[in-house]
Amino acid sequence: MERFNEYLGNMDNLLQTSTTSDGKGTYIHPALKNSGVVSLVLIRKAIGPVMIRNSEEEITDIEFNGATYIRAVPNKFKYPERGRGLQILRAFGAGGRLPQNKTALGSQQKPSDAFDMNALVFGDSTTQNNRVLPIKSAVNYSDALSFIPKYLCVDESFHNRAMEDGTLFNAENKKNSDNLFNRHFILPGTLMVQVLSTRGRVLPIEGLNHLLLSMGVAGAYGGQTSITGTNISTIPVGMYGAKFERPETSPYEIVRMFKDMELDATDEKSVIETIHKIMQKVHVKSMISEEIAAYQSDLIDKFEKNDQELKKSYLESALKVGELFDNWFGTGK
Asked: What are the residues whose beta carbons fall under 8 Å from the beta carbon of 46, sequence distance 6 or more?
């Protein structure tokens, strides 16, 4: 991962001191942003039925380039991974003191009592004494798009909410139940592309490690996961670094390219190889799928074995991240 250092932040330089406009004093603030982008391209592979929808029963989609594709908005993947990140911090005693989306601070508490590495990587916000404390995420999740049109990779099934005796008769209302419904789902084997990017050199290598751990290799995503269980496998395509962003890192451009060039978008290995060749050409630094998978596998192995070096890294980072937030929001030095 050292090859990406020039595009990432530094855990020892999260804060900077600047002179006030009148030149008579100084103030502390987060380190100023610098040019540098690291993009992690992922394949989200459906390994079980996936329900990604809003209030309607149909799978969410978007129409572009003359076809309709599955569209999973960023939070469909970010929310579960942010939750997994909290669990990792709790395991090491390095954060995760509050439930996800329930961040709260008492009037006398320090911001670091609530904000931790997870807040730095995934973003967070809360209020304290009638002021808002906002943290923009260091990692941006894109939409996840299917490579092939929606009609080719979505199906539906018919269900009913029957009584315990197996009938549709509602004993309370003394009439037949009308609880009949359709369930739309993404077919197992469907490949979707998503890009996770960090820009401005605000994410240190320790934060990137936390992101890779939080992603894991598989999980339960979308709605009704108690029915489907583990339904998404995450496969890295590659990691790419440069001073500026490239249009090719947009999943919309990737899907458009596959359609316009009539490339095979159903074979996992072919898709990974094709995307990597294109990304490697337009970026300064790159890392192939196998390297990322090996690096991530090593992190997971260390975490599952409660590796003391990894734990030490998390605890040391927790102190520095806590110092960042305490000073950022004005309760520190």
From this structure: 186, 187, 188, 189, 190, 191, 192, 231, 232
Please give the average per-residue pLDDT across 178-189, as a whole number: 84
Alpha helices in the chain (DSSP H): 75-92, 117-122, 205-215, 225-228, 251-260, 268-282, 289-304, 308-328
- For the chain, the first-to-last Cα distance in angstroms comes to 33
pLDDT of residue 172: 77
Give the lowest-confidence range in 36-40, 115-119, 264-268, 275-279: 264-268
Mean pLDDT of the chain: 93
Short-list 139, 123, 145, 144, CA closest to 239: 139
Q: 94 with 318: CB under 8 angstroms?
A: yes
- The dihedral through the CA atoms of 316, 317, 321, 327 has a sign that is positive
What DSSP letter does each residue of 6-28 carry, written as one string? GGSB-GGGSEEEEE-TTSS-EEE
Q: Could you tell me which of 237, 201, 231, 207 has the C-alpha nearest to residue 299?
A: 207
Separation CA 43–CA 62 (nearest Å): 18
pLDDT at 180 over 70: no
Query: CA torsion, points 142, 329, 213, 145, in degrees to nearest 10?
Result: -10
